[in-house]
Amino acid sequence: MTEDYPRFEYPDHEQMAREVEAALNMRPEHRTDIEPPLRFETMEEGIARIRAQNEAMRPQRETEERKRVEERAHRVRAEKIARWKNAYKVVLATVALASSMKAGGFIDMAEDPFSDAGKVVAGAVPFEEGYIEHNAARQTVIDMYREIDANGYDKVVSEAENWKADHAEQFPTAETLQQFEVSVDESSTNEETIAALGDVMSFYNIGVDPVSSDLEGKESEVKELAKAYAKVFSELPKDFVAQAKLYDIGITNDLGEEIGVYESDGKIKVAIDVLGANVPTKAKNSVALPDYENVVAHELDHALLEGGLERIEMTVDALGGEWEEGGSPKDIWRWLAQKPEAPSLYSHRNSDEFNAELGVGLLSDWSRGLVDIQETRLFSSKRNKAELQKLVSYEAAYPGIAQLLVANRSH
């Protein structure tokens, strides 16, 4: 019995050569698709070669790592923005709900404030029969905010710059202000600083008191306060400042428990020790005290009120003697918690201080004033209504000033 086995055939030479070549190619030293293993005579040579290869690859690895870090940072930032947007929507919805539940609350959103800022101004500033200047100023501010609402601040800023160019005689020259900055920065004595400030203030026909000897050693503070004086005044037209009963300014070392004062003879004094020991501890612990620019603006508004500027009716209860007598900071905050909508704690003292604090919001870069005009023009809180009334009173006293002030604060 025989079985049908497959017939064996010897491979030809060409087939054998191909198989041998394939077998050899499987060994690393014969493969062409991978790098051959490194061979070194000594361990030191191998370590040096490996270090050199790592160094050559460093730029590529660093580039890849930077790319990974940037991609992760971008992803994290996008996630944060998304979370903030959601939180912002929740806050707006909560405020709108609270406002609708409590008429006359923090924000009056009975009319959509995002649609017509002019309505907010019109609601904040009443029309007064027979008061031509007031009503004209009111309409100017309403129209200005409607323009801002429709087209943004660019046009208002541009028109303000054009007005300043057309009334260049109302402002110190750029060369004067630049020379003032250089002179103050390079001054080594208080006398030199005061002389530089005098060059700016003389444009407004306002004198500067000589410095006293007790300011020696405080040259940097004197420089800072001098720059605050120059900044507040140089942004205002000469004829507007002239409406203030103001003839002299001064820098002093000590005003007792006051930071700044306006004296009835037409003089402003500001103490360099804004955060000094003479300020009541109660005030220090209760509020963030203002900087020099805010203090100068506050006292300038006192002078404008003395010169006949319209007084805004106080929208908060007066703190009166409770400011000076008794009570801890917590007691004061508890008292004020029931009396919100004030420009500051200090504005609760009396009508004069309330009006002057409103002026700070218009004449300086104060976070509680028109520096945040997005809030002021869109919402009808009591504080913002008073701020807008103050703006109209300025416009009535000097037509065109409202546009300048809003343009200055538009950032």
What does this structure look like?
The protein is mainly alpha-helical and 411 residues long. It has one domain (117-409). Helices cover 57% and strands 4% of the residues. The chain is built from 17 helices and 4 strands. It has helices at residues 13-25, 43-101, 117-124, 132-151, 154-166, 174-186, 190-201, 219-234, 238-241, 281-286, 292-306, 321-324, 329-337, 351-363, 373-378, 382-397, 401-409, and strands spanning 207-208, 248-252, 260-263, 267-271. The chain has a 4-stranded mixed β-sheet with strand order 1-2-4-3. A hairpin with a 3-residue loop joins strand 3 and strand 4. The longest helix has 59 residues, at 43-101. The model is unreliable at 95-115, 275-289 and 322-327 (pLDDT under 50).
Tell me the helix content: 55-70%
Describe the largest sheet.
Answer: 4 strands, mixed
Q: What order do the helices and strands follow?
A: HHHHHHHEHHEEEHHHHHHHH
Spans with pLDDT under 50 lasting ≥5 residues? 95-115, 275-289, 322-327
- Number of β-strand runs: 4
| Amino-to-carboxy terminus distance | 109 Å
Class based on secondary structure composition and strand pairing:
mainly alpha
